[in-house]
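Researcher: Go.
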Amino acid sequence: MIKSLCVFCAARDGDSPEIVVTTRAFGALLAKRNISIVYGGGGLGLMGALADGCLDAGGRVVGVIPESMVTKELAHPRATEMHVVQSMAQRKTRMMELADAYCALPGGIGTLDELFEVLTAVQLKFLDAPIGLLNSGGFWDSQIAMLDMMVQRGFLFQTTRDRLLIETDGERLVDRLSECARDLRA
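Model: Structure:
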């Protein structure tokens, strides 16, 4: 059901080699499932591992990157397709246009910004698509607790929180995203 998955993740490796391995395997899994990756276009960190895993498994990778990052040679050199935009805001908009489902892997402020923009668009009914978190190594535990507190304190609808599908296993996450896509189209 999912043709293209927008994946938000870090342009750094972070402190866990296990998360890098998991990210690369997630890219390979998406290639195996014939799901194209739409992502931030970088060749470094988790973004690079994700793209390499997909490309090495014969998959399709679509990058969206601001021009300023291309000139700094941060764009992935092997991406199947690369969209160059002028700003970070245009990057998010274009990534959202190119995908039919979304997920976040470990990352920093940019990843949080992208994830919460999509979650906000779903809450406001500007977007009706599956959203997931791959909670590798418990990375998202604190943010999940924060979202749950927002529900408890009346700042987030439970229905919006429930739209965020959380798994520690990549295969299970892709299955749930696909099920959600099927249900949304029914």
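Model: Residues 17-32 form the longest helix (16 residues).
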